[in-house]
Design a protein that fits this description.
Radius of gyration: 24 Å
CATH topology of the largest domain: Rossmann fold
Number of strands: 22
Structural class: alpha/beta
CATH class of the largest domain: Alpha Beta
Oligomer: single chain
Largest sheet: 6 strands, parallel
Distance between the termini: 70 Å
Strand order of the largest sheet: 3-2-4-5-7-6
Number of helices: 21
Strand content: 15-25%
């Protein structure tokens, strides 16, 4: 059937929903608002699209971002104008820094009231201009298919990211005769033969190479990465919160380049003669405050990324515009070359450093958080999804857990508090039969704690592990380092998290010792409802190897 034959008269709201159907959207996260009522009405008739009503727009946008991360196609969120949009901006910023495809639709004031500071009016091009790949407003119902198709294509193209579309409420009510535009596959750049030749020459001459894998799309590339590492005896490090790209049990995995980095890994990166960066960004975290992987260092840097614009940011010795799958397929094509004999020892030592680093030491108190995380890494199946927000509590997860499959880590590269709970809900809705664990600090959880209601409402039987030390521990750590003894603003008076969770319909239990955790976890997973375990951790245990009393 041709596109012209599909044309029929419909309201702007109906056209938006038909365009979502054409883009194969099956779930939309929202907080309802009067500014996009025609869309909500049209969704009533779209049985194949689940409408998930969240409790705050920040949580809704974070859920959509997590869904986009898991699917590799844009997550979709609808919010109302003004306060709805400002609340949702937390999720947009998270998606931007995390290179996550997201399309945020915002109800907008009517066209004939714009530029008068109408009720809840905001110029979204100015508001989101620096944190979205594209921001636009659809002023004609007839052009909705054009804008929606482009929004989805921009969101997944090159370096993925968020797109924002504003929908004037009167435009959604007007009728037009038009047809949805079909989904478009993103461009998949491939390396030039000269690039492959240059990379092979550099690799053949390297005795101490190191791969650094980041957040660009890895669709169809994980197995290729494993084969290439095995053939070339390559150690693999993960960029900040990208640990699920490579199986952490592989003898080639050597750790993550993030906050609380293994000092041995940091030194190894500086000692490498060749660093091949696959798909990540040279961010402040990855470069350890721009102190490594910088111009003038001894090693050569090869930077591979599907976005030419991203390549221009880094003065690499060789820049290759390619998807990860195309680059790795090209490198695996043909016979393997001679691997320098020094590489085996280099790889073995790097792996040994990682194994030593991921053995927890004792921390203050009766609850050994590191031992709990290592127990979970043995108990949970390979497809379990772990989620977290921001805070020192996440250092234990990143350091001691081992991710074994792609799509099992949802953590904010932007360092946004509150992400873990919305991400876990989105993950459980997407994969209801897989275990989904949310780790959160007591401060982090309360950023989006109202989304416990969303989990209960939609039967998302997640497990929330809240680590309670009565403080904003990360900020307290920095205070003690820079302003010792002058505590300001970081103490928390918390609710009874177990009572709060039960009020939302959760199974809940407080855990004070390591031994109490194991049966509590078993009971939580068997409860057939969302669950929360509250771990009581003394503030003295700031990180796996730093005590407050030491500061």
């Amino acid at each position: 059937m041709t596109e012209i034959q599909n044309e029929r008269s419909a309201s702007g709201g109906q056209i938006v929903v038909r365009c979502l159907q054409a883009q194969e959207v099956d779930r939309v996260f929202c907080v309802p608002g009067e500014s996009y009522l025609p869309v909500l009405d049209a969704l009533f008739d779209a049985a194949e699209i689940q409408l998930v009503t969240c409790r705050q727009e920040g949580g809704a946008a974070m859920m959509a971002a997590a869904d986009g991360k898991l699917r590799g196609s844009p997550g979709v969120c609808f919010v109302t104008r003004g306060p709805g949009a400002t609340n949702a901006s937390a999720g947009v910023h998270l998606a931007y820094q995390g290179s996550i495809p997201l399309v945020l639709f915002i109800g907008q004031v009517a066209r004939d009231t714009q530029d008068r500071e109408a009720f809840q009016e905001i110029d979204y091009r100015r508001m989101f201009g620096q944190m979205a790949k594209w921001v636009a407003q659809i002023d004609s119902a007839e052009r909705i298919p054009e804008y929606v198709q482009r929004a989805f294509a921009v969101a997944v193209g090159g370096r993925p990211g968020p797109v924002v579309l504003a929908l004037p409420e009167d435009m959604l009510r007007e009728t037009a005769t038009t047809a949805p535009a079909p989904a478009r596959s993103p461009a998949s750049p491939a390396p030039a033969p000269t690039d492959i030749s240059a990379l092979r020459q550099r690799l053949a001459a390297s005795c101490k190479p190191l791969l650094l894998c980041g957040e660009a799309p890895w669709t169809g590339a994980a197995d290729l990465l494993r084969h290439w590492c095995e053939r070339e005896q390559l150690p693999v490090a993960a960029a900040f919160r990208c640990q699920d790209i490579c199986d952490n049990d592989s003898p080639h995995y050597i750790g993550d380049v993030g906050l609380g980095i293994n000092p041995a890994l940091r030194a190894r990166i500086k000692a490498a003669d060749l660093v091949i960066a696959l798909g990540g960004r040279f961010s402040e975290i990855v470069t350890q405050g721009y102190s490594i992987l910088k111009p003038g260092d001894r090693q050569q840097i090869v930077y591979v990324h599907p976005s030419a614009e991203e390549l221009a940011r880094v003065p690499a010795s060789l820049a290759i515009n390619s998807s990860m799958a195309n680059l790795l397929a090209a490198m695996l094509h043909g016979d393997a070359g001679q691997v320098p004999t020094e590489r085996a020892a280099w790889l073995e030592a790097a792996r040994g450093d990682y194994l030593q680093w991921t053995t927890p030491a004792e921390i203050p108190g009766n609850l050994q958080y590191g031992n709990i995380v290592t127990w979970l890494r043995e108990q949970l199946p390979d497809d379990a999804i772990l989620c977290n927000g921001a805070g020192n509590y996440s250092i234990w997860v990143h350091r001691f857990f081992r991710f074994r499959r792609p799509g099992t880590q949802l953590a904010p590269i932007s360092g946004s508090m509150g992400y873990g709970l919305p991400a876990a809900i989105a993950a459980k809705l997407r994969y209801p039969h897989r275990p989904v664990i949310c780790f959160a600090g007591d401060g982090c959880l309360q950023m989006t704690v109202q989304e416990l209601a969303t989990a209960s409402h939609y039967g998302a039987n997640i497990l929330v592990i809240v680590v309670n030390n009565g403080s904003l521990g990360t900020i307290r750590m920095h205070q003690e380092r820079n302003y010792p003894g002058r505590i300001s603003g970081t103490e928390l008076r918390n609710p009874d998290f177990t009572a709060l969770a039960r009020a939302y319909g959760f199974h809940a239990q407080a855990v004070a010792t390591t031994e109490e955790f194991f049966p509590a976890f078993t009971a939580a997973m068997a409860s057939d409802k969302p669950a929360l375990l509250e771990l009581m951790l003394p503030l003295d245990a700031l990180t796996p190897n730093l005590k407050l009393s030491d500061l």
